[in-house]
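Fold this: Transposition auxiliary protein, TniQ
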Amino acid sequence: MKPAPRWPLHPAPSEGEALSSWLNRVALCYHMEVSELLEHDLGHGQVDDLDTAPPLALLAMLSQRSGIELDRLRCMSFAGWVPWLLDSLDDQIPDALETYAFQLSVLLPKLRRKTRSITSWRAWLPSQSIYRACPLCLNDPGNQAILLAWKLPLMLSCPQHGCWLESYWGVPGRFIGWQNADADPRTASDAIVAMDWRTWQALTTGYVELPRRRVHAGLWFRLLRTLLDELNTPLSTCGTCAGYLRHVWEGCGHSLRAGQSLWRPYETLDPAVRLQMLEAAATAINLIESRAISPPGEHAKLFWSEPQTGFTNGLPATERKPEPVNHWQEAIKAINEAIADARHNPETARSLFALASYGRSDPESLEQLRATFAKEQIPLEFLSQNIPEWPFACLRLNDGLSDKF
């Protein structure tokens, strides 16, 4: 069977662009609709949601047609951001919200958090589609890409222009209208730009530079989602910490809890309410960094600057002791990152399998291990080549942390 011919015309994807946006721009080159491109040129008919979990066969065909790496194409959908942006695309996982948003704390101590048990929940994925974009980007004929992040209630401003994202209708490049057609682009506040830049850094580099230290992108997304839930906490459950929430909401100029009386997950809130929640989160981070408030949450200190060291005659007056390193947590983090990489990297998958299978020789044990790898979405074909030997025993993680193997 001959490989699919390369497209003569195909614009390169912009950084962070959604797969549906890029395919729309490709289709425009041939005066086609995306549905026509999918069905007649790619043989895939109508795909319900290209930006959530596009079929692997479609991505492979797109890679052949364009020469773009399969991993990059996959990262143009939400499936490519598991488990960093969200833990899973499965919306029926028990305690998913608790696991994602209730393990950290910023404005409130953990003991003030009410347990929430809900079904059909996935982090950040809204209940209805979002159509918001940067007016400066889309009004530029040479730069009409829709970013994947704009399809989530995750950012308020454009990382390139620093202006508010605005609601639109239509399809970029074909027809587009703005909700506030006569208004000039609105400049976002410094607090919003700073928060959104960190989110963009997480999406494009895999880490975020916070005042205290660099953190993994996965921690940033969970930290932000935690903060949003704290800002929607009823004051009656906050005790003496209620003042921190009042201070934040007064600081951003919106009603307490954006006018909400009943708690609902952030992803299901009215779009206008979510915008106010995000603005409040940016305000909270700014207030913490400026030390206008010092909330009791365990992770609020990540937003504090390092203490200044005094000097006397050119020598440090005080010497700051380094924070103790939790080597067990570092090991867990390294293994979890290796599992995430192994889903796309055959070399990492083989090395990880060699580590996990050390000391196992019976077929039943090895088959159980392969089943574990398959459950972790690591392709078993990655393990078909020779497995290198490791001169040390396999690490085992305790229950309650990351019992993968």
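Confidence is low (pLDDT under 50) at residues 311-320, 386-405. The first strand starts at residue 132 and ends at 133.
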